[in-house]
Amino acid sequence: MKFTRRDVIRTTAGAAAGVLGSRFASSPAFAQEGLTYKPEDGAKLRMLRWSPFVQGDEDQWLANTKRFTEATGVEVRVDKESWEDIRPKAAVAANVGSGPDLMLVWFDDPHQYPDKLHDVTELGEYLGSKYGDWHDGPKQYATREGKFLGLPLATIGNAIVYRESWVKEAGFSEFPKDTAGFLELCKALQAKGHPAGFTHGHGVGDGNNYAHWLLWSHGGQMVDESGKVTINSPETLKAIEYAQELYKTFIPGTESWLDVNNNRAYLAGELSVIANGISAYNTAKINKDNDPKLTEIAKDTRTTNLPIGPVGKPVELFQVTTAVIFDYTPYPNAAKAYLQFMFEEQQMAEWITASAGYCCQTLKAFDNNPMWTEDPNNAAYANASATLRPNGYAGPLGYASAATMADYVLVDMFAKAVTGQATPQEAMEEAEKRTNRYYRV
């Protein structure tokens, strides 16, 4: 069974939408009370976004974009690129001063080129005031020195996705809630021929999410509050040693995985446990080809949050995407009008619903979208925006945190150690040297 990126996942907007709560159905699609941007004469916009894993996300985004064009006369061309290509393309556009007018970027990328982005503070404050304020984590990614560099659009949640029957076959009545029990489960699953698999490759989302969880769950951190590099620590060493033991239970090849690979392996029935967005489960649930194997996988799939490590509390990185307007655009008012329209209640509520648990709201007013309780498997993703820890922890977000993540320093540290390319100490020291190139305090 082979799955392309396009297969992961092709749910329609209609299938994902469900029933909107009455509060989501009451607002006119074009209501923009209190703040209005008049598009420039002859304005045309080009937007670049990431390729969807949930087709309902893209379908509803395009439907909402069409509404905007019908209401304003402003044409918006929406292009898409693979997840891994978004970051370099955004950096090139910012530095060259040419390309799309708007873009959906990752994590703290806006902090790499803040002077190249159009200030949307007025719009950010308006939306926050109108819709119950922004969740703090996504807001940190989009703001700098009190100004909005962009609008935090969504958090792509990450959770454990597993086969319940195989976990029980391995002798566990429930999924372990701590890292010690989780390691024992993975050993038992491997012995039963159902290995786990977590991304050690340069997956923008899955690779970074897993590496940061490994570090933070054991009390390690890249830098301290002042931005001093502290990755070389006993806590980091314990995290690496734990990762080495866990890696022994994995399906082969995870050191080269990108964001799509664990989806494919899980849907092919090759492994029992992954850390992923809800897209893998939704692909099996929608099952557009009526494949009996996918039907079985969907019925057997459960989700839960990642286990808690020695640090004693949940500490997880989730992937945030921010909508930015490049300062070179000749149509800044049209671009702001477009983003305002997409964030207003009817469009935003419908888009979150159509995303089927994949895109978590960043504005608190949308926390009670009925979609989050329609399926028990959605629950593990419902609070991603409220609970995420930004990747710059424990220091401030900025150029250094963004560049360190873009260079996959933490991901490479674990990958080199678990594959035997370096000892834990060597891998940690190399990560320290690489991080110090960006953090100069």
TrEMBL record:
Record's keyword annotation contains Transport: yes
Keyword field contains Transport: yes
**Pfam families given in the database record:** SBP_bac_8 (PF13416)
* Localization in the cell: Periplasm
Question: Would you identify the family this protein belongs to, as annotated?
Answer: Belongs to the bacterial solute-binding protein 1 family.
What the entry lists under PANTHER family is as follows: ABC TRANSPORTER PERIPLASMIC-BINDING PROTEIN YCJN-RELATED (PTHR43649:SF34), ARABINOSE-BINDING PROTEIN-RELATED (PTHR43649)
Query: From which source organism is this entry?
Result: Mesorhizobium tianshanense
Check the UniProt entry and state the signal peptide residues, or none.
1-31
- Name of the protein in its database record: Multiple sugar transport system substrate-binding protein
Q: Extract the coiled-coil ranges from the record.
A: none
Q: What is its main location?
A: periplasm
Which keywords does the record carry?
Periplasm, Signal, Sugar transport, Transport
What the entry lists under InterPro entries is as follows: Bact_solute-bd_prot1, SBP, TAT_signal
Q: List cellular component terms (GO).
A: periplasmic space
